[in-house]
Design brief:
heterodimer; A: 597 residues; 4-stranded mixed β-sheet; 19 helices; 13 strands; 35% helix; globular; B: mainly beta; 22-stranded antiparallel beta barrel; 5-stranded mixed β-sheet; 16 helices; disordered N terminus
Chain lengths: 597, 1096
């Protein structure tokens, strides 16, 4: 009996074990490469996973340059004031995006679709690879080039860096393929031919200028190739793309309206936008960009704006000691769309600044006292704030690329200026820039390495670029490619005060604040002085940096508001590059550090 | 017939409850009704039935009363009794006897030795065994242990009761699931014991579906040999839970309830004085390059005013700079305000059981309601559980049964409930504006979000039914059992966010937040089929027991979620009434296992026990060619006490057994359903394309071809002892468990690989440990009544080392061979720098957070272990530079003490539990406050920070009295904490040893002792005497008071609940970068409860 039962059970088990279907279970909500990459929809669905465009954060990305101060932590600040080493400067060495791109490029071709459509998708894939590698080249110069998704046992994982020249050549092969094959039309917010070309022009200009000014690379001889490419591609966009500068004839608003706009889709100036829709994709917008939290614009940027007659502000006598209200008189209208100017009204009070109504600059320790309205949504409606679109690539940048590349090549004509920089000037209501613009001593001091017959106009174009693209996240890259990192060493300055006493900050001639010595005390609420409008003056105790004061002035009781005096040293050429993180060098000793890292 | 019975029972329960409660009122007066009548004196002798020797100290009691006596040195006693009385004679280690008095005046009673505690039947895998015959490492917990203390979940009742059954609750959240572990770290992938409830698997979370009152016994199978029969999922032990059945003839009803009041055990001591808070906060950022916290003189003046006299002005005013806005100056600990509230919980259980002819039944219903700490909004967990068990035995050779349970749980909480947010609110915030609107700051926003921001409601309905049958032949020599279980779970989640209003100013109320409705529906379907045959025979000195069987399980879980924005009406926040684009995701997963198993058990002459176990298992979670595994095990035991040579000792040591086992098992826990396949999921993209977020698919994570089961080999050696007729019993086991071929990332690959390293069978570890349990059980005479006293002490320990890992450089950021898991690498503290000269002499720049803070006097100073005048962190074990192992986070020396006494109807139980050894390096806002982030808050302990010099008189004039009184304006160079620099303990750089800087890098100066001793429970109960109960037709009535988590001894208690840091165990992986989490736990609760238990 016992035997029988055991046999019975054994028999049952044997038959069950052979029947392996029971243990075959396959995913139903996940897909393998065998079942994917078959149709145009599959390819498109995959490509959307590669999107990595910036958003609202571009408006706070000029911190730690000469455009804006920050109390926050940034990589360059940490390098300059700290003890940077491959152990503590470790960001940026991530390669997931490249694997995703290469995985696509290894699999897309099995889709049986129209060959031109297939090339279109291949082009988008290669565009993302080019874009990925350009970011790597910017940080590390020489980087290992991979055009395949690595397997765990691939010896190439341990290879040395490839030289910059080779990698950049590959990058522009990818860009060129994408330029030729990616279609012009795309859905709103998606990559099309123009997005590809805009990146291509941007990066060609970067590479051209970088090679030209960074002699440590010994690649000066090839700089013009990329400058020509930049001008060429920019010109193609200008000729063939149907883009235009947003200009309704209202110079006091047209420019600024691009940066707090809930609906940029369809704007002729926007080549690529990061769009937002309340509760579908919120913009991530935060009101604290305004006020004294982390980023605050600097006096140096304010001084870059021309007078409204086209002459440099810095030609004004005593420009360095002008009062806040005076600084804003008769300036390039773009200034009033970038900085909170005297008389500007604050509506949205979800910020690190107090005071609804006509805004009185709030002064605090370590902040410039200037406040940024570019990218700021001066509206209380949180749903509107979440709706804001971000112009990631503006046509204005293409025009600036064109002019800069031509000027770098020394072939810029007045005609070139008129179809590029002067279009921007027109929108801003500013006089045109002429080829024979006079040399500007301040600009010469800032960019001493610019030379040649078109040096003056090139510097003027650089200023134009700084103003037009102010606080949109371009400045740091520009300083790097121009070999102008030393400019970061200058402390960003704030409002100027000639001494203790009362000041008007709203431009109505009525005093708003009073500076007293930090030895004094602020009177009780009832004892405060009342101004002509019946408002109590705002009291500040001022003193030298580090003292017990409301905020600091450079000379204690006079001077400019102190922001971030501890700037450290921008070591050249080292700080134009980043080290490969130490743990990666341990894993792959062939990755040698360069430029004294 | 059955229908009739059910009707009767169910119909009966409806009206039962109120009736029961009314009866309670009658007990006390009933006592007076006890009458006195013609008594006679009876004399007697109590002897040992074995050798006739007198038994000294035996209890003699008149049944149903508290009257009685004990025997003298000659075993004699005298008692007054009536003829109809029954004497109950009991003595520890002997079987209790009852003797009718009748007309006798003399009685002689011989008590038989009681070997029940040895003869105890223990549930083991697919069967039962006598405890004496066990050869593996098995522990048992009977319902008595669980019932002695009011518990809310089974796991709570198990904590601290069995050595090396490690149960850690990570939070005090209602319905929280614990970590359950047997014998220490199992695998670097984790790996939990298999929990079987009536032979059907459940996980730690699902244990919440079980009403503790339904449990009859729990067996813990610790070693490979006892667990082997369960195969692949039993590699890390098995917890076998058996529910109650109807056993005794007749009919019995049990009712019990419990009403509890709870408060958080430990809440952080926050600085609430507005001036001290603001001044210390500003000081913390003043000392950094990121000095963005800068209060105005105006704000300080108001803070000082509110600090010096809290009643001088209110916490809210119109902003003097801008009359359109409110301005706040609170002085409140918002954590306590929102969390420190007594909340109530309650529980009711009713069970009807009995046996009639060939039918036995058990029917129970349970209701539980646990309220969380939050009072502002509904934050609760409740459970309705029903179980019905029926057994028929229509023929002597056939038995059929059904066991059905239904459990409905609800977890309701505010959508925005976030414990970190509740901990981080600054004291200077305030919750309400004068006009009653929620204030424009963290306190107000939190209040608005919790009350108006929406809700989360998760309902899980579990239905499970098991049909079982047993065929038996040849006088039960051969039995064939089969059971089939179907389980269905429905998970119904309903959550929504609604916009809420914040008052910015007197006439400025703004709407914030989102209007999003969320739904999730999940469906679990689970089948378990077990069939096994048992052959059992004794012949002469030989005993055989053979089991062979088959098990298969199939599990399918499907779930979809929908989020939809644009809810039209906040009062009907449903996906149906929303206008936005619906975001839909779906998950489906299946797994199946199938296995055949056997057990051969042979006992010779009740002395030598030999057992073989084995199983052949297949799992769907591995590739086809690596799917099956065979796991054998063997164990043996020698009952030394049965040997002739032991006889002289048997009076003292009545039981002595030696056990040994070796077995190998495989493991699949920590393995995803389809991890061996290279597949990608689809998710919603991050960019709007044509106004909508596109669905996207990305590259799949790479998969290794070297991918199959982990193997677990375990060895166990144990001794069981019984002394003085089992008054004292003890067990000691030592074991070693090797986990081989753990699935982990292989060799660390350079980042250019572009993905996380695929997992492969690449590492081994070894856990060694021991466990001890000592029990004491005795009865004494106290004031003429028997005092029954029990005590149990358990202690266990284990340590784990990595024995293989592909880390040729022995990098510290990865496991390495020889690494003891849990070790903390860090620097050794050398106090603080006191002079610039000291700072110049020792280069500590490599550990400066962000490379940007400045080292100044008062900064932590480290010991320069390698003497090169530079503090550097090495990268490998071979060259650690100034790093060394400074502690270990794994809990060691876990212990539990259980003391119980019963006397004259009273019972007392004391339960202590704790961890004897554990290091804890705090990386936590609640500990470091401002040192971590400016917004991380100020805590009283941090006020003892380094101050190089006293404030000037000008500065003092600005300070509040409280600030001066706290000594904060004075120098404090002999401080516990360093100079107040925000970000000095910032963990946002990462917690991995190479990433952590400053105080986020463990160091000896702030290492805390994580050991704790907790008075888990104290229960005092009283059972009314039978004589009384009979008159009101009750079999039993007990009332009790109980306190849970009453007190504790612990160093970390000054900051957080000692149990909340047990989640630190997740850091045994040296590659963990985290930067968040760890102990921001939902507050643990102190609970005071009252309950009653009734039986009819």
């Amino acid at each position: 009996m016992k035997k029988n039962i055991i046999f019975l059970i054994a028999g049952m088990l044997a038959s069950q074990s052979c029947n392996d279907d029971f243990l075959e279970r396959f995913p139903e909500t996940e897909i393998s490469r065998e079942n994917f990459f078959n149709s145009a929809e599959d390819l498109e669905t995959y490509l959307y996973s590669l999107y990595d465009f910036p958003g609202f954060d571009i408006y706070v990305a000029d911190n730690s340059t000469d455009n804006a101060a920050t109390t926050g932590s940034t990589e360059v600040k940490n390098m300059m004031i700290g003890s940077p080493s491959p152990s503590n400067i470790t960001g940026g060495w991530s390669w997931e995006q490249l694997r995703r791109v290469n995985y696509f490029l290894e699999n897309f071709s099995k889709a049986e679709i129209d060959p031109s459509l297939l090339s279109h998708y291949e082009g988008i894939g290669r565009f993302f690879r080019a874009k990925f590698y350009m970011d790597k080249v910017k940080r590390y110069s020489d980087v290992p080039w991979y055009d395949k998704a690595l397997l765990t046992d691939d010896p190439d994982m341990y290879k040395a860096r490839d030289p910059r020249a080779l990698v950049v050549e590959k990058i522009f092969e990818d860009y060129e393929f994408a330029r030729q094959h990616v279609q012009e039309d795309a859905r709103a917010g998606a990559v099309n031919k123009w997005v590809v070309m805009a990146h291509m022009a941007r990066h060609a200009l970067h590479e051209g200028t970088f090679r030209k000014y960074h002699t440590e690379l010994s690649l000066q001889g090839t700089a013009n190739t990329y400058l020509e490419l930049a001008a060429d591609i920019a010109q193609q966009i200008m000729d063939e793309g149907s883009f235009a500068i947003h200009n309704t004839g209202n110079p006091m608003e047209d420019y600024g309206s691009l940066f707090h706009n809930p609906s940029l889709d369809g704007s002729p100036e926007v080549i690529l936008g990061t769009f937002s829709e309340f509760d579908v994709r919120n913009s991530g917008w935060w009101g604290y960009m305004f006020g004294n939290y982390e980023v605050n614009p600097a006096k140096d940027l304010l001084q870059a704006y021309l007078m409204d007659d086209g002459t440099p502000y810095t030609n004004q006598a005593g420009y360095e000691t002008k009062l806040f209200v005076e600084e804003f008189q008769n300036r390039d209208p773009r200034l009033y769309q970038t900085y909170a100017y005297p008389g500007w009204e604050l509506i949205n009070t979800s910020t690190y600044a107090q005071g609804e109504g006509i805004y009185v600059q709030q002064l605090t320790k370590n902040f410039s006292g200037y406040h940024q309205i570019k990218g700021f949504v001066n509206d209380r409606d949180a749903a509107l704030q979440a709706n804001i679109d971000v112009p990631v690539i503006r046509y204005a940048e293409i025009l600036l690329i064109y002019a800069e590349a031509k000027a770098e090549l020394g072939v810029l004509t007045q005609g070139d200026l008129d179809i590029s920089v002067n279009v921007l000037r027109t929108r801003a209501g500013m006089p045109s820039l002429s080829l024979g613009v006079a040399a500007d001593a301040i600009l010469e001091e800032q960019y001493p390495n610019v030379s040649g017959p078109q040096a003056s106009v090139l510097r003027a174009i650089r200023r134009e670029r700084r103003v037009e693209l102010a606080l949109e996240g371009f400045r740091f890259d520009d300083l790097m490619r121009w070999h102008a990192g030393k400019l970061i060493e200058k402390e960003p300055e704030g409002l100027y005060f000639p001494g203790l006493g009362k000041y008007d900050l709203t431009g109505d001639g009525v005093d708003d604040i009073i500076l007293i010595s930090n030895a004094g005390t602020i009177p009780a609420e009832g004892d405060k002085e009342v101004n002509g409008l019946g408002k109590k003056l705002i009291y500040y105790r001022v003193g030298p940096q580090g003292s017990d004061a409301s905020f600091y002035l450079t000379n204690g009781t006079s001077g400019t508001s102190v922001t971030d005096p501890e700037r450290g040293t921008f070591t050249e050429p080292k700080y134009y590059y980043r080290p490969v993180p130490q743990d990666q060098v341990v894993l792959n000793p062939s990755l040698e550090q360069i430029f004294n890292w | 017939m059955m229908n009739e019975l059910y009707k009767h029972i169910i119909g009966g329960t409806k009206s039962l409850l109120p009736g029961l409660l009314m009866l309670v009122a009658f007990f006390v007066p009933a006592q007076e009704l006890v009458a006195q009548s013609d008594r006679a004196t009876i004399q007697g002798t109590v002897t040992d039935a074995g050798d006739g020797s007198p038994l000294i100290g035996a209890n003699v009691l008149i049944k149903g009363t508290t009257q009685g006596t004990i025997t003298d040195v000659d075993g004699k006693f005298t008692v007054d009794a009536e003829p109809e009385d029954i004497l109950v004679i009991s003595f520890i280690g002997y079987l209790t006897q009852e003797v009718a008095v009748g007309n006798r005046s003399q009685v002689v009673i011989s008590l038989e030795l009681n070997s029940t505690s040895l003869e105890e039947i223990v549930v083991v895998g697919f069967g039962e065994q006598k405890k004496v015959n066990l050869s593996g490492a098995v522990d048992v917990l009977d319902s008595k242990m669980l019932e002695a203390r009011p518990i809310q979940s089974v796991a709570q009742g198990l904590q601290g009761t069995v050595p090396n059954l490690n149960i850690d609750f990570l939070s005090g959240e209602p319905g929280a699931a614990p970590n359950i572990n047997i014998r220490g770290i199992t695998s670097i992938n984790g790996g939990n014991p298999l929990i079987l409830v009536d032979n059907v698997p459940m996980d730690a979370r699902e244990l919440n579906f079980i009403a503790p009152a339904d449990i009859k016994s729990i067996s813990i199978l610790k070693d490979a040999s006892s667990a082997a029969i369960y195969g692949a999922r039993a590699a890390y032990g098995v917890i076998l839970i058996t529910t109650k059945s109807g056993v005794s003839d007749g009919f019995s009803i049990d009712y019990s309830n419990n009403i509890a009041w709870s408060k958080p055990t430990v809440l952080p001591n926050k600085v609430t004085d507005p001036y001290i808070y603001m001044r210390t906060l500003e000081t913390s950022t003043d000392n950094t390059p990121w000095d963005y916290v800068n209060y105005t003189a105006e704000q300080y003046a108001w803070a000082k005013e509110r600090s010096d006299d809290p009643n001088a002005s209110g916490p809210v005013r119109v902003n003097p700079l801008d009359n359109s806005l409110w301005d706040y100056m609170g002085n409140r600990d918002w954590t306590r305000h929102y969390l420190d509230n007594p909340t109530t919980s309650q529980r009711h259980n009713i069970a009807i059981s009995g046996k009639s002819g060939n039918t036995s039944y058990y029917l129970s219903g349970a209701y539980d309601l646990q309220n969380g700490a939050l009072k502002l909004a509904e934050d609760k967990f409740d459970r309705y559980a029903v179980r019905g068990k029926v057994n028929f035995k229509p023929f002597s050779w056939l038995s059929l049964g059904n066991n059905t349970s239904l459990s409905l749980t609800n977890r309701e909480k505010p959508f925005y409930l976030s414990i970190p947010n509740l901990y981080n609110i600054a004291p200077t915030a305030w919750d309400k504006n004068p006009d009653g609107t929620w204030a424009n700051n963290a306190a107000g926003r939190t209040g608005a979000q919790l009350t108006d921001g929406g809700k989360d409601l998760e309902k899980i309905n579990m239905f499970q039914t098991t049909f079982s049958g047993e065929l038996s032949f040849l006088d039960r020599m051969i039995r064939v059992n089969s059971d089939f279980t179907v389980r269905r779970d429905n998970i119904n989640y309903n959550g929504y966010q609604t916009r809420y209003n914040i008052g910015y100013g007197p006439d400025d109320v703004r709407e914030e937040g989102s209007n999003i409705a969320r739904r999730r529906a999940g469906y679990l379907s689970y089948y378990v089929w077990n069939t096994f045959a048992t052959f059992e025979k004794s012949k002469g000195k030989h005993y055989f027991n053979v089991i062979a069987g088959y098990n298969q399980e199939f599990n399918r879980f499907e779930q979809f979620t929908i989020n939809r924005s644009g809810v039209i009406s906040g009062s009907l926040p449903t996906i149906g009434l929303a206008t936005g684009v619906a975001n839909v995701t779906e998950d489906i997963g299946e797994w199946a296992i199938r296995g055949a198993f056997y057990r051969l058990n042979y006992i010779f002459n009740d002395k030598y026990i030999l057992e073989f176990n084995g199983r052949y298992d297949g799992s769907s979670k591995f590739p086809k060619d690596k799917r099956f595994a065979f796991v054998p095990s063997v164990s043996a035991a020698w009952r030394v006490d049965q040997e002739n040579f032991w006889e002289p000792l048997s009076g003292t040591i009545n039981a002595f057994k030696i056990r040994a086992s070796y077995g190998s098992l495989v493991n699949q826990s920590g393995v995803g359903n389809y991890d061996y396949l290279e597949t990608s999921g689809s998710y919603l993209g991050g960019y709007l394309v044509d106004g909508a977020l596109p669905q996207v698919v990305s590259a799949p994570p790479p998969v290794s071809s070297n991918y199959t089961w982990e193997q677990v080999n375990s060895q166990n050696l144990g001794v069981d002892l019984g002394l003085f007729q089992q008054r004292i019993s003890a067990s000691f086991d030592i074991y070693k468990r090797e986990t081989l071929d753990m699935l982990t990332q292989g060799r660390e690959l350079p980042n250019v690989f572009g993905a996380a390293e695929p997992r492969e069978n690449a590492a081994d570890l070894e856990t060694k440990g021991w466990e001890l349990s000592v029990g004491y059980d005795d009865e004494f005479n106290a004031a003429g009544k028997p005092l029954h006293f029990t005590a149990k002490f358990i202690l266990s320990d284990n340590r784990t080392r990595i024995t293989r890992f592909d880390n040729p450089n022995n990098n510290l950021t990865q496991y390495y061979e020889g690494k003891e898991l849990g070790e903390i690498w860090g620097l050794r503290s050398d106090g603080f720098f006191s002079t610039q000269g000291e700072i110049d002499a020792l280069d500590q720049t490599s550990v400066i957070p962000w490379g940007a803070l400045t080292i100044v006097p008062g900064w932590p100073k480290y010991q320069d272990l390698d003497g090169d005048n530079v503090i550097l962190k090495g990268t490998s074990v071979d060259d650690p530079k100034d790093l060394s192992v400074i502690g270990n986070i794994t809990p060691r020396m876990r212990y539990g003490v259980n003391l119980g006494a019963e006397w004259g109807g009273f019972d007392v139980r004391v339960f202590l539990q704790g961890i004897g050894q554990m290091d804890y390096y705090p990386l936590h806002y609640l500990y470091w406050g401002f040192y971590q982030q400016p917004y991380a808050g100020g805590y009283h302990h941090l006020l003892d920070f380094y101050r190089g010099e006293a404030d000037s008189d000008i500065e003092r004039a600005q300070h509040s009295q409280s600030y001066i009184a706290a000594g904060l304006a004075d120098a404090n160079t002999d401080a516990q904490f360093p100079i107040l620099q925000a970000w000095l303990a910032d963990r946002n750089l990462g917690e991995r040893v190479d990433q952590a800087q400053g105080l986020a890098l463990p160091q000896t100066g702030y290492m805390l002792n994580g050991a704790y001793l907790r008075l888990k429970n104290l229960t005092v109960g009283y059972s009314l005497p039978h004589s009384l109960l009979e008159r009101i037709h009750l079999k039993r009535l007990r009332v009790y008071f109980s306190g849970e988590n009453l007190a504790e001894r612990s160093e970390v208690k000054a900051y957080f609940d000692p149990e909340s840091i047990t989640d630190n165990i997740a850091k045994v992986n040296p590659a963990t970068t985290a930067g968040y989490g760890w102990g921001y736990a939902y507050p643990f609760q102190r609970r005071y409860s009252f309950g009653l238990e009734l039986q009819f």
